[in-house]
Each structure stands twice: as structure tokens, then as C-alpha cells.
Amino acid sequence: MTRTEICITGFGGQGVVLCGHIIGHAYSINAGYEATMVQSFGPEARGSACSTTLVLSETEVLYPYLQGLDIMVAMSSDGYEKFKDDLNDDGILIYEKDLVKPSTPKKGQTACGIPSTRIAEEIGRVIVQNIVMLGFFAAATTFITKDEWENAVKDSVPAGTEELNLRAFHTGWDYFDENYGEGKTAKEEVKAEKAAEEEAETAAAEKVAEVAAADTD
Questions:
Q1: Measured in whole angstroms, how far is the alpha carbon of residue 217 from the centre of its chain?
Q2: What pLDDT does 189 receive?
Q3: Which residue stretches of the chain are H helix?
């Protein structure tokens, strides 16, 4: 990866900027590469439009602004609508499933969603929905190691909340694995095996019925 451009968008109060900060911290401080971040806020701190853009690179970032959007993380429908046309033809859309209803991706684009707000509520603190989303993002992109992501989370969140935030991170990571990654493949294999067993049992039962019918005749 020489240069990857990311936009995280949502509304104030969702932790958009912290999410971007952790991505930059993980990639630059922990992994040893280069990262820049630019923030944008609406006129009000909470509830208004909010976005942050990052440029990740293996070499020095000479221009910190977006030239072509590789990955969009959409936590709100307004943010999605604002930036969706900027996503590259081979870009990745990561979105909040309960808040964003994306249009059909262009050929070559990838889209994957997670109900991060609902999951955070189930964890017990809706405020960690951004960290749930971060875990999902980390599993989807595989830029760096899981340990480097975890250390960035611990270094960036308020003291005393590390355990809660790591739980949120792991939940997001696991959701991707179970629904889009290796976990999904494993579940599909189990489902296929079960279907094959049921089909074999049905065929055997039909065979027994045929033999019984022939004996009766």
C-alpha cells in the first residue's frame, strides 16, 4: 500500500474524530508508517455533520488532502450522501447498517455494513459505537496487525475505559469475521454439510419407502 485515502463521516457525538485519530495512531505510531488527518465540523458540536479524512502511506505524506477516496466509513445517511460519489470505482464502503441505506455499489466497489449503534447498546454503552465500527474497519482492511490496533485503542481512550473499549473493538472485529470473513466461510461450510446430511437422510427414507412398497406388492 503506497497511499490510501479514507473518509469517516457521521454527526457530532458519534466519535468520528476519535475513530480517525486511532486509525492514524495505529498506522503511524504503532506500525511505523506515515499518516495525516484533517477534521471538519458543522456549526454545532453535537448532532451536526462531522467528518475526518486520513491519508495513510508507507512514505512521507506530501499532500494531506483527498485526491481519490479509497475507503469511506459512513456512520450517518447525510454523510453517506455527501461523500458517496467521491468513492473510487474500486473503493470500499463501510457503513452503519441501521442508519445508512446505501445504493447498489458500482462494479468493482465493495460494501459491508455493521449495526454498530445497536451492538454498542447491547454492550451497555452506546458511546462506544465508534470503537465497534473501528474494530469492523480494522478487520475489513487488515492494514496492520491486530495487536497494533489494540495498543492504539488502549493508548487513545480515557483511562479506566480500556477494557470496555477493547470489548467494543473485538465485537466489531468478530462481526466482520462472522459475516464477511473466515467465520462466514466456516458457517457456510457447516450449513452446506448439514444440508447434505439432510438430503442423504431424505434419500435414504425414500429408498426404504420404495422397498417397503415393493414388498407389499
A1: 63
A2: 41
A3: 16-25, 77-83, 116-123, 129-141, 146-156, 162-179, 182-216
Q: Write out the three cell numbers for 187.
A: 458457517
Residue the block writes with cell 462472522: 178
Q: Give the domain extent around 162.
A: 3-180
Do 148 and 97 belong together in one domain?
yes
CATH number of 161's domain = 3.40.920.10
192 shares its domain with 101: no
* Distance of alpha carbon 114 from alpha carbon 179, whole angstroms: 9
State whether residue 161 is helix, strand or coil.
Answer: coil
Indicate the pTM of the whole model.
0.81
Tally of domains in the chain: 2
Strands 49-57 and 34-41 turn out to be antiparallel
Alpha carbons 172 and 194: distance in angstroms, whole number: 28
pLDDT by residue (tens digit) across 57-68? 999 999 999 999
Vertex 15 angle, CA 9 and 19, to 5°: 75
| Mean pLDDT, the chain, integer | 88
Between residues 206 and 6, the one the model is more confident about: 6
User: In terms of domains, do 60 and 114 share one?
Assistant: yes
